[in-house]
Structures are given as C-alpha cells and as structure tokens.
C-alpha cells in the first residue's frame, strides 16, 4: 500500500472520575491519535503514552518526536506491504515501543480494510466475546472503594483489580475480602515495592488473590523470581514485559505465573502475537491489559483478546467507566454478561471513528503529506 498522508492528532478527554495509581492521579486522557491515509482508505492508531513518563519510559512528547521525525519519513509516499514489514523496517530503533505500536496499529487497521477481514480474523482470534474485569484506582477511604466495588460487581465485572501502594495495601485487601469473600480479586502495585517488603507479600497469601500484578521494579525480573518462589500467590508481570525476549526470560527465571499483554508496551500487535504463542506453549495464562485508552485503542484490544490463550478477564472496560464522550461509533459497551463482542465480518459488529468527536476533543494536529 502507498502511504499518502499521515496526521498526528492530540486530544484531551476528561475522566468521569479521577483515576489514582501509585504513580499519578489521572484527571484526563491526554492522547495522540494517528491517521494514515492510503489509496482512499484511512487507518487509525491510538498512541497509549501518557502526559509524562510515569508508567512507561516514553510519554506523549517523546512519542510525538519519534513518530514525526523518524516514523513518518520512513513511510510517507512510500510503498509498504503491511504491519509486519513496518516492524522489520523499524528494527534499528531502540525502545520507543509505544510510538512504534501506534503506527503499527494503524497499519493493521488499513490491512483489515484492504482485505475486508476483521483484525480478529487477521490475527487468528477464536473468541466471539471476551470477558472484562475492572481496574479500580486508589480512593480517599476504604468505604469509598467498597462503594466502587459494589457498583462494578452490580454490572457483572468478572474480576476486581484494586490498585495498591505502600499505606494502601494489606488493610484494604483485608477489608475488601471481609465484605466480598468470594470475588475474583487481584491487586496491582505498579512497581511501588521492593524485596524488603517480602513479608507483606507473604501476608497477602492469606487472601486468595487471583494474582499480584507488578509488585517490584518496572524493569525487574530477578527480584520478582525471588518473590515468586517465596509466596503461594501468582505474580503477574505488566511493566517488565516489554518484548518477546523479556517474556521468554521471565518465564525461564520463574519471575511470574501470569502475564498481562499490552500491545502498546511491547511495540505492537505483531509482537503481542509472538508473546501469546510463547505463553501458550508454556502454559502461562494471559489477559489483555489496559491503558485507559480511548475507543480506537479499546476496540483493537478487544480483537487482541479474542486470541485463544487470553483466558483471564481483560482490563477492557466499557468506555463509560472512564469517559462521558469517546471517539468511536458506537462507543464500547458491555453486554448483559459483562463481555465485549469481538467485531467481525460474520457478526455485523463494527466500529467507526467519530471524526466530529475528535474535532471537539482535539488540541493540536500535525499533517504530513
Ligand atoms: O498498570 O495496568 C496498569 C492504567 C494506566 C496505566 C497502567 C495501568 C492502568 C490500569 C487501567 O490498571 C486499566 C484500564 O485501562 O482499565
Ligand atoms: Mg498493571
């Protein structure tokens, strides 16, 4: 396909409720959207970076630079076969996976439109619908958190994940378990602890957590292996799994028993498929992680989660869990079974991008043609 034009659009969308993690309190989703024009079609990608490098080493500023100054010149007015060739072309770049993924995702969208096949079909998805879990931020008080849990349980969310940080951990888990002895419960520390906290994690074994997500360093697999051997609860790696290579090493070392795949964090859907296949071979259960994405990224996550080895509930909530206004038609919503239907050419489910909504939410646009 010939690439005729590329736009980078920055949007800011307020959250309905601030989302607080161990690393920041998000009040709005500040995001870059990529539009690639090719032979009469437009492919969309959403860059998952945040306003600052708090969770990933990249942010919207670095992604904007890498996309504009490095990726756009590689593609503009050139011929490219598809996302796989793009990944080969950018193999000289170190890191910068969120920037690469945003463009790669748009090329998957173009390929899907050119071939008249859903992303699910292109990547070998097998599920018609995927289960969703909810990720709950840190609240001012435990009763506030319990109210949130109640609200999402009433909607049928299949797994409740609570964000923890030092001072908001074991007491919170204990109270949540006291009120909800049987729910599928997980915690996410976003790297806020060290091995010095090992007794705290041993104490968590009592609460029947489905897994503990990324307790230690954001690059670490060594200390996680030590911790995993010391506790019964499964560890799930998020931040540390930035590539197929990182997943292979973590599995070999025994650093985790579960992995969360974010196509952005690993540099795209192509790399996600490789990680999926590796984990399937090794019996490491997977789920698709979330980045509080807008509709474009959310819909692509649903398709990724349709692959057979995504067996645990995914962090792909309904759009209205985060936003009053989103950028797809229809907006992503859950079924009465608290699942998301995977868009496919056979079931008539498809999403289009709401250009008018993008115009309302846009703060800047760069056009390359
Ligand atoms: O660690 O999974 C995470 C949001 C922003 C950054 C990191 C994470 C999260 C979430 C939210 O947990 C998941 C979602 O999009 O619903
Ligand atoms: Mg996480």
Write the layout of secondary structure elements.
Elements: E1 5-20, E2 25-38, E3 41-47, H1 60-75, H2 83-89, H3 97-115, H4 119-123, E4 129-131, E5 134-136, H5 142-154, E6 160-163, H6 170-179, E7 185-188, H7 198-204, E8 211-213, H8 222-230, E9 235-237, H9 244-253, E10 258-261, H10 269-282, E11 286-288, H11 295-304, E12 328-329, E13 339-341, E14 352-353, H12 355-361, E15 362-368
Parallel strand pairs: 5-6, 6-7, 7-8, 8-9, 9-10, 10-11
Antiparallel strand pairs: 1-2, 1-15, 2-3, 4-13, 12-14
Helix pairs in contact: 1-3, 2-3, 9-10
Bound molecules: 2-succinylbenzoate and magnesium ion.
The site of 2-succinylbenzoate has 11 residues, from loops.
What do these coordinates show?
There is one protein chain. With 369 residues, this protein is an alpha/beta fold. It has twelve helices and 15 strands. The protein folds into two domains: 5-116 and 355-368, Enolase-like, N-terminal domain (Enolase-like, domain 1); 121-352, Alpha-Beta Barrel (TIM Barrel). 34% of the residues lie in helices and 21% in strands. The strands form four sheets. The chain has a seven-stranded parallel sheet with strand order 5-6-7-8-9-10-11. α1 (60-75) packs across α3, α2 packs antiparallel against α3 (97-115) and α9 packs parallel to α10 (269-282). The chain is globular, with a radius of gyration of 20 Å. It binds 2-succinylbenzoate and magnesium ion. 2-succinylbenzoate is lined by residues 55, 135, 188, 190, 238, 289-292, 315, 317. Residues 55, 135, 188, 190, 238, 289-292, 315, 317 line the site of 2-succinylbenzoate.
């Amino acid at each position: 396909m010939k690439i005729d034009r590329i736009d980078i659009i920055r949007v800011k969308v307020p959250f309905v409720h601030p989302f607080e993690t161990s690393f920041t309190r998000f009040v709005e989703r500040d995001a870059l959207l990529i539009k690639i024009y090719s032979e009469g079609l437009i492919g969309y990608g959403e860059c998952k970076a945040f306003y600052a490098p708090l969770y990933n080493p990249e942010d919207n500023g670095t992604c904007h630079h890498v996309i504009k100054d490095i990726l756009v010149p590689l593609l503009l007015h050139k011929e490219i076969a598809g996302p796989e060739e793009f990944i080969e072309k950018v193999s000289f770049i170190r890191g910068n996976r969120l920037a690469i993924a945003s463009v790669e995702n748009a090329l998957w969208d173009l390929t899907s439109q050119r071939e008249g096949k859903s992303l699910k079909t292109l990547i070998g998805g097998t599920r018609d619908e995927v289960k969703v879990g909810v990720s709950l931020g840190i609240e001012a008080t435990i009763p506030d958190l319990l109210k949130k849990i109640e609200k999402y349980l009433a909607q049928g969310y299949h797994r409740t994940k609570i964000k923890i940080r030092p001072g908001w951990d074991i007491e919170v888990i204990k109270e949540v378990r006291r009120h909800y002895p049987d729910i599928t419960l997980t915690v996410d520390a976003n790297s806020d602890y060290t091995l010095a906290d090992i007794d705290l994690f041993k104490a968590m074994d009592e609460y029947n957590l489905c897994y503990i997500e990324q307790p230690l360093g954001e690059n670490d697999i060594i200390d996680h292996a030590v911790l995993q051997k010391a506790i019964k609860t499964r560890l799930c790696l998020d931040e540390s799994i930035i590539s197929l290579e990182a997943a292979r090493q973590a599995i070999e070392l025994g650093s985790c028993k579960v992995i969360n795949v974010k196509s952005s964090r690993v540099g795209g859907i192509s790399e996600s498929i490789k990680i999926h296949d590796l984990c399937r071979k090794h019996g490491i259960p997977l789920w698709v992680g979330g980045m509080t994405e807008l509709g474009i990224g959310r819909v692509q996550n649903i398709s990724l989660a349709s692959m057979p080895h995504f067996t645990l509930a995914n962090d792909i909530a309904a759009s209205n869990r985060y936003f009053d206004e989103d950028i797809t038609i229809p907006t992503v919503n859950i079924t009465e079974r608290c699942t998301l239907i995977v868009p496919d050419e056979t079931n008539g489910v498809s999403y289009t991008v709401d250009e008018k909504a993008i115009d309302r939410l846009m703060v800047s646009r760069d056009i390359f043609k």
